[in-house]
Amino acid sequence: MSLEDQLGVSSIPQRYVLPPSQRPDLHVPISTTLPIIDLSSLNHHSLRPQTIQDIRMACKNNGFFQVYIYIYIYIYIHTYYLNACTFFFFFFWLPARCSRHCLDYSGLHSRYQVKCAHSILRNSTTKCYIKKTEHVYSTWEFLFSFDFSKAHVTSFWIINHGIDQSTINDALEAAKEFFNLPQEEKMRLFSDDVHKPVRYGTSLNQAKDEVYCWRDFIKQYSHPISDWIHMWPSNPPTYKEKMGNYAKAVRLLQMQLTQIIFESLGLNPNYLQEEVNEGSQVLAVNCYPTCPEPDLTLGILPHSDFGSLTILLQTRSGLQIKDKSDGNWVSVPFVEGGLVVQLGDEMEVLSNGQYKSVIHRATVNGEEKRFSIASLHNFGMDTKIVPAPELVDEKNPKAYKEFSFRDFLGYISRHDVSKQRFIDTLKMKPFESRN
Ligand SMILES: O=C(O)CCC(=O)C(=O)O
Ligand SMILES: [Fe+2]
Questions:
Q1: For this UniProt entry, which segments traverse the membrane (predicted)?
Q2: For the chain, which domains are there?
Q3: How remote is the CA of residue 28 from the centroid of ligand 2, in Å?
């Protein structure tokens, strides 16, 4: 059975109705403190340490951040032409204008612009990073209409950074086409065996869930891609190519992010290099159909992802995360072109609890189908993950038992993960860690 069977119903079947204590609040506040990390600044010698520090704070506080595709505008300015007008523009006018256009990120954004302004004033040749969101276009338009002759802009060019928008669009299109197929076609890939490398299903774990989630999904192993791609859907005919291109691109991004996160922990960026290279990747392609009673059910129940990192692409808002400071849910704002990065259980264990995996859930809505593609990255199937010895000492004793991806699969095939998270079974009691 899948959610397609429920299309057109005016109330949700009892099987999907959550007990009142687990029902979502669809009006929780939108997070205004979600860090935005500019990955392009990693390549900038003077900005790199600050970016690593920003990632460290993001991981410590939330286990969660968003990365954006940036447009770089390189502006050449002859410093001797900098005058009061340019100073006013970079320090006051631009930050103020950005704040007005981007309410959720106002603080970050103006700080960010000020940082740009600083480096422009310091160097005669510099980069100005502009976020590619709706408000940026207006900022950008402004940059064009600004009389640069006063600042002697001699040249600029634009480069897209990160995963190409067309790769992202293609992957989402392939997902939509797959879920639009006749039910019999999709059911060929149906399985409730969590060990199957490619499987179509509904809810979280159909065989175990007492209450079903309002979600259909296809999960597919994706790395090394040549080992698995022949098992992916052959229909729609372009699925393998489009989803495959996205899988490869997102994996490269994950490798870069993993290195940065290790560095932010004070570890060598190449820590566990072999395990990272040989690690597995699972794409969870999710479809949340429109729901007549979204306040009674959830697309995915609260959980943390098992792996090291998850990179999430989504077509509209719906993701909520639990704020660790007060235990309240907050809604993750949707930004076109943005990718959400979440830390998983493996990273919590590896960091010996310095970083925590993020608890999240997906809500559904009555207006429009929502799609998401979660790229879940794990170390190898049988690689035993332990807290990094460098992060264990007298003051911070080993806090987790070792485990592997295979151990996790064994756990979810036997347990309802909404009742107890796998990571909670790994936490060591103080006397255990002394042994
Ligand atoms: O669709 C979402 O927003 C979340 C998906 C998710 O958490 C998952 O696939 O593990
Ligand atoms: Fe998840």
A1: 67-94
A2: 3-29+164-434 (2.60.120.330), 36-150 (no CATH)
A3: 19
